[in-house]
Amino acid sequence: MNPSDEDRRQADLRNKIIGLSETSHRKNYYPQLKEQIKELKQAMRALKESEEKYRTYVTISPYPIFVIDLDGKFLDVNPEACRVAGYSSEDILKKRISDFILPSRVDNYEVTFHKLQTEGKLSGEFPFINKTQDLFYLELHAVQIPGNKFLAICMDITERKKAEDEMLRAKIIAENANRTKNEFLANMSHELRTPLNSVIGFSDMLLGGAGGELSEKQLRYLTNISNSGKHLLSIINEILDISRIESGEMTINKQKILLGEVYEEIHSILKQLADNKSIDFQMPLESEETYVYADKVKLKQIFYNLVTNAIKFTEKGGSVLIDSTIDDKFVHISVIDNGIGIDSEGMKRLFNPFVQLDSSESRKYEGTGLGLALSKELVNLHGGDIWAESEPGKGSTFTFTIPVCQ
């Protein structure tokens, strides 16, 4: 029952009793007086039970609850509020809520409390200081109640705030570490590429006859030097590209590109690699007149990574096929092989950088584990998507999408 309704009812009963008392010497109103007194006692007992019930609810509540006046002075407080503040109820009732505000946030408090006074309600997360001057946080919901008072029901979110702060610190540390790593990789890549370019350049000059005619042995040695240097340079370039992407420094120059031209270039570059393993390497014909909106160099890099992977993991005499379909917005390009395939565990880690599905020292297939990760990032930069389908012994299909040039 609403206490204000009960107060009015008691007042009505008292008035009736007073009226009965004034006229009781003239009339015999004793039975009515007795009934009214009984009713008054019942009402008072119900009110007391109601007060005790709600007092119990507040007392055992796991949430801090308090009542303050218009000046912020505490009028009532429950045990949980005492616990988070570190004071007894007697001590808190001598204080104002401003006594728990950080000195650096006094101005904010005054603005916030003024908002509560004018609007009659307030919700938010606020920091306070306890008896030992330690910081604690409350999610607070306050509302004005009769008697120019404010009732606040809160939730102690100190542990959650600590966890959020720890996560933020860990994020900052990780970002700093990643930035340091990227700077190191970029610097090291530059330091390594400079001498490598000299090695590759001079070996190619000698292979071209700049130093005179070469013997068969010299030709073989120089070819190995050139090929090894170019392989190492490609690895360094992949590491540098991953570093640029992770640091947000990778840029792409998208333009209208004839997809058939890219197919022809990739086929001419990798045909010999496929022929060395007697692999049937086929390109699509139906997409020769299809235009895409892409960075040509980056698109060729995606193709190169996917096709060389397919050739590498396909046994001699196998096949590698590039297929494509077109919808309103994208070209769906698939690189299909009938190679060794990938198990379910390998599929989960497929596009992670520096991950080799066979990480043993005696692994059969070489590689850095960067090609697929780099391809995924390059596809994402184009606004496309990439995925794979595979089963052990049944080959693999890698599909990616590139925007059609409208």
Automatic annotation (TrEMBL):
UniProt keyword annotations, A-Z: ATP-binding, Cell membrane, Kinase, Membrane, Nucleotide-binding, Phosphoprotein, Transferase, Two-component regulatory system
Subcellular location: Cell membrane
Pfam families: HATPase_c, HisKA, PAS_9
The keyword Amino-acid biosynthesis belongs to this UniProt entry's keyword annotation: no
Enzyme class: transferase
SUPFAM superfamilies named among the record's database cross-references: ATPase domain of HSP90 chaperone/DNA topoisomerase II/histidine kinase, Homodimeric domain of signal transducing histidine kinase, PYP-like sensor domain (PAS domain)
Catalytic activity as recorded in UniProt: ATP + protein L-histidine = ADP + protein N-phospho-L-histidine
Main location: membrane
Residue intervals of the Histidine kinase domain: 187-406
Domain PAS: 50-120
Assigned EC number: 2.7.13.3
Entry coiled-coil feature ranges: none
InterPro entries assigned: HATPase_C_sf, HATPase_dom, His_kinase_dom, HisK_dim/P_dom, HisK_dim/P_sf, PAS, PAS-like_dom_sf, Sig_transdc_His_kin-like_C
Domain of life: Archaea
Gene3D superfamilies: 1.10.287.130, Histidine kinase-like ATPase, C-terminal domain, PAS domain
GO molecular function, one term: ATP binding
GO cellular component, one term: plasma membrane
Protein name (Swiss-Prot/TrEMBL): histidine kinase
Organism: Methanolobus tindarius DSM 2278
Upper lineage: Archaea, Methanobacteriati, Methanobacteriota, Stenosarchaea group, Methanomicrobia
